[in-house]
Each structure stands twice: as C-alpha cells, then as structure tokens.
Amino acid sequence: HVQLVESGGGLVQPGGSLRLSCAASGFDFYDYAMGWFRQVPGKERERVATMAGTSASAWVVDSVKGRFTISLDNGKNTLYLQMNNLALEDTAMYFCAAARTISRCSTVAYDFWGQGTQVTVS
Q: For residue 95, what are the β-bridge partners?
C-alpha cells in the first residue's frame, strides 16, 4: 500500500526558505520516479521537480531553477524539496507524487499522490 505524506509547508515572507518533506511507505524508491507538483485554485497542477528513485535525473521547472532543489534519502524513504528565495508566485498547495518507473521522470504520468501541504508566501 503506497502512502505519501507531505509536511513542511507554512507561511513565509518573500525571499524566505522552506523545506518540504514527503515520507513514503509501501514501496521501494529505487523502482519509482518521485516528484513535486503544485496547484493554485482554478489552475492546472504544475510539475515542479522530479527525480528518479536512484537519485539520478533531477529536473526542475524553469521558473524555480536556482531556487528549488529536489533530493531524497533512501535510508529514510523521504523525498525533499528545498525552496529558497521564495516569491509570491510560489504560493500553492504542494503535492508529492510517485510513478512506477525510473525513466522519463519529468514527463511521465504519476500514479500515487499525497494529500498536499500548503505553502503561502506573503
């Protein structure tokens, strides 16, 4: 039973930092792609950052390059998103997701989703 639980969201001022965590259970990271997505009410969900469960093939969307970093700790079964220099437009609900593949992580459809954690920059 795949389970993803996000944490670490909150309210932060522009220019501040947050680190999101996603505790995963029920599967082996090595066989999956992992990703962070975000969504603002009324807009489509946006793919923000992805990585193979082997820690290879890290990718981030252009709008967060140089500010956000995706990483994972296989020993802790946890995915992270370090977010620095946050901007107003980063305000969104952030979701952790997993896909049953380690290829095409930045384009593949994701199979499993967490409940999300709210990030508000204000």
A: 37
- The one-letter amino acid code at 119 reads V
The Cα 41–Cα 1 span in angstroms is: 29
What is the distance between the alpha carbons of residues 40 and 35, in angstroms, rounded to a whole number? 17
Q: Residue 113: what are its φ and ψ, rounded to 5°?
A: -135, 145
- Distance CA(62)–CA(38), nearest Å, equals 14
Over residues 10-56, the pLDDT tens digits come to: 999 999 999 999 999 999 888 999 999 999 999 999 999 999 988 88
Residue given tokens 């930045």 in the structure block: 106
Contacts of 35 (CB under 8 A, 6+ apart): 47, 48, 49, 50, 51, 70, 96, 97, 98, 99, 105, 110
Distance CA 56, CA 39 (A): 25
